[in-house]
Amino acid sequence: MKRYLSAIKPTGKLTLGNYIGAIKQFVTLMNDGDMILFVADLHSLTLPINPEELRNNSRNIVAYYLAAGLDPKKVHVFLQSEVHEHSELAIILQNYLYMGELSRMTQFKDKTQKMNNEAIGLGIFTYPVLMAADIVLYDTDYVPVGEDQVQHVEITRDLVHRFNKRYGDILKMPRALIRQSGARIMSLSDPIKKMSKSDPKGDIFLDDDLKTIHKKIMSAVTDMDCRVCYDETNKPGISNLMTIYSALTNKSFEEIEKEFQGKMYGEFKKEVAKVVVDEIACLQTKYQEILASGLVDKVLKEGKEYASTIAEKTLKRVQNAIGLYRYE
Ligand code: AQP
Q1: Cβ distance 63 to 291 under 8 Å?
Q2: With 80 as the cut, is the pLDDT of residue 67 above it?
Q3: Residue spans of beta strands (DSSP E) within 52-209
């Protein structure tokens, strides 16, 4: 059976980008194999975060996973920090990735470009090492991610190749799995920038009130051209709205272009706003029910047990291969 593994960092409130680019894809894939999802709380420590916020964000992610339709009978969900093998394996694997390649990672460069070297924590630099450990710990086949995370899966593949060349066939080679549409939802106020939890300008949050969502979409930045057609380079705002609309309605760009031919941007935006508001309204209702039901703690407990069993075996296999222990 194929195994899928993915995660979300509890660095802030979930956005429509996280929902379309990640969570919706998890729901589609859950019947297709063994799915392991975790809340990447250790990864969220790479930039300063308030402890109470971190705790709340972590629970909220699980509640949104379930609200979006992830079935706890089919999907295993846990907190990364509760399975200690992630950290232990990362300590080992950091010896198989190099400073040069880590400093070339786009996410590292983006997140630290305005920071002074003296203020950059080591965790943000070694982020890909922990992510590689997250992935290989579960003998993962596929890592469903948005486009921004593909580079991290690629460096994990380099590591696996390097490690296996030295010690034999110990780590499973993973692959990134990217959504065909919606892999990169952009900011509504600056559509050449990714919609991001930690940079809330132009974001739609899953817990925004519905009027606010409508307003945000109606005032999304577009262009002067007035034709609803897909052109990422010259019409990034309209293309972004088309991506959102397409992801939530399953309509192709051609169908959308036909539907709004000769119509004004205002009409198109109203329709996008309606679709987004309907989707999020339904999600918010289920989310509140789940938070009130106590299901989050139950799911996390079961998920931790499932994940720990697999993680323990992989860590022992690695330790054994590199000469730390010898097991029967
Ligand atoms: N704008 C986006 N469009 C499509 N997919 C997205 N993802 C994030 N933003 C978009 C996908 O969501 C998953 C979880 O991401 P993450 O929390 O691990 O880190 P991230 O990619 O860095 O997401 P954010 O929201 O931008 O977080 P911060 O601001 O903390 O860095 C991933 O699969 C990601 O591709």
Answers
A1: yes
A2: yes
A3: 75-79, 142-145, 175-178
